[in-house]
Amino acid sequence: MQLVIIAGGLGTRLRPLTLHRPKALVPLVDRPQIAHILDALPPSCDEVIVAVNYMFEQVRDFFRERQFGVAVRVVEEPVPLGTAGAIKSLQRWLNGPFAVYNGDVVDTIEFDRLVAAHEKAQGIATIAVWPVDDPSAYGVVAVEKGRITRFVEKPAKGEAPSNLVNAGRYVFEPRVLDLIEAGHAVSLEREVFPRLIEHGVFPYRYEGFWSDAGTLPNYLNAQRLLLDAGHAKISPDADVTAGSLRPPVYVAAGAYVEGRVGPHVVLGKACRIGRASLRNATLLEGVSVDDKAEVTASIIGAGAAIGEGAHVRDSILGDTVQVSPHATIVDERVTA
Ligand code: GDD
Ligand code: MG
User: Fold this and answer.
1) Which DSSP category does 239 fall into?
2) Do residues 307 and 195 both lie within one domain?
3) How does the average pLDDT of the chain come out, rounded?
4) Are 179 and 253 in a shared domain?
5) Cβ–ligand 1 contact at 153 (below 6 Å)
């Protein structure tokens, strides 16, 4: 079965990291976000079609260089067509029932089980769902007698029909394509799902974990889930002997650590951490953090430098940002 990955969003909620790289290629623990999806595909998935708009060339080049044991076609969408318009534009390449994944989600879903559930239910579509505490930032479904009876995208707080959200993993019958107009932007969630309900849309539940990774808190949640699930690692080519690590952490090759790191910290290649304290954070490659600095609940872009005694919390710092000694940065997005 073919899998379409819709990965054309602008990634505005992860700016400034997404000013120079598409969201699909933002590193998440040890590899670009989209690679977590490819790694989990079984042989029954015989082709992946990636629909990209923003920074198409970077995604195309990534898949030219990295092989995943499955044929990957990266298709450029010259103007963003929305989540359904993107799928419609791929119609000529689709040759039967097909799966669709959002590109910015990490999970433990099993492709084969999702497909098997779709075949058993015999609806026009199957939507994987996941329970969350606050569904207002997602698509929310109402389920009655095993069927989805309503789909509400981003309901106002308190107006969600349930706490089951659209996990961004679907299987569709080809006739779904006939219900999407060609040639302009169409939203799968706001326009197409409500239309599909009468044709039989079924929910799919699975075990394990699920997280969106497209906002700072969700990205950090996704990272935490991956680290807890066995992606923690300390490279033998890192020097952590002078530091104190609180697992789980991921430390890439060439990193040097003196300070307190963890839990839930990812250090990219060649990061240099003085006697600082890092918790629940990602540092992309080549970041330096000086003595007595503190970094929590933040993503620090490649080559950034955090001065002595500085505090960074709930923030995203772009590549090569310099933070002055003793500065305090809370809930900010900082570009170099
Ligand atoms: N090709 C293409 N073209 N892809 C797009 C476009 C477009 O115009 N717009 C968005 N995408 C891609 C994004 O890159 C992302 O992988 C996916 O479609 C979903 O878009 P987001 O912008 O990340 O949506 P969201 O996170 O607010 O909500 C979506 O995901 C939730 C789960 O994480 C919805 O599908 C919700 O219903 C769902 O609960
Ligand atoms: Mg998203």
Assistant:
1) B
2) no
3) 96
4) no
5) yes
